Amino acid sequence: MMYPPFFATCYANVGVKAIFGTTPCRVYPFGEAPQRVTRPYAVFQTVTGLPENYIGQSPDMDGFTVQVDVYATTVAAARSGAEAIRDAIEGQCHITGWRGESRDPQTNNYRYSFDCDWFVSR
Q1: DSSP β-bridge partners for residue 94
Q2: What is the share, in percent, of the chain residues with pLDDT greater than 70?
Q3: Which domains does the chain have, with CATH numbers?
Q4: Distance separating the N- and C-terminal Cα atoms of the chain
Q5: Using an 8 Å Cβ cutoff, are 62 and 93 in contact?
Q6: pLDDT 10s digits, 17-54
Q7: Is 116 exposed, middle or buried (0-12, 13-18, 19+ CB in 10 A)?
Q8: What is the DSSP string of 17-43?
Q9: pLDDT in tens, 90-111
Q10: For position 2, what pLDDT does the model report?
């Protein structure tokens, strides 16, 4: 697998589905969220990816850093969405950075952003 199982892990979690829905689940790869999507929603993207290289053998896993951004109409909803995703994924990866909160001046969406690192076996 050349990417972490971010969406599958989120979609398998009841808490994520309670906040982001099921059909569709509003957790999208970067650039895939539809125009005027219902909020809250989240987007994710691989920021870096590196094979675990060894001398004398091929890598048996890859490491990835994934950036997650949750968008909502209120601060509380953005935070709740980020917490639900955090709770869903922490058993399979490590949260490595809280990027902070902001508000988009054009859409007025609140945003909560964080990074997580995954090690994915080949």
Answers
A1: 117
A2: 99
A3: 6-121 (3.30.2000.30)
A4: 6
A5: no
A6: 999 999 999 999 999 999 999 999 999 999 999 999 99
A7: buried
A8: HHHH-STT-SEEETT-SPTTPPSSEEE
A9: 999 999 999 999 999 999 999 9
A10: 80
Three-state DSSP class for residue 33 = coil
Distance, CA of 85 to chain centre:
7
Residues 6+ apart with CB under 8 A from 46: 3, 4, 64, 65, 66
Q: How far apart are CA 69 and CA 107, in angstroms?
A: 15
DSSP 37: P
Structure tokens at 55: 């001398």
Peptide bond into 4 cis (omega under 30): no
pTM: 0.93
Task: Show the tokens assigned to 43.
Answer: 């987007």
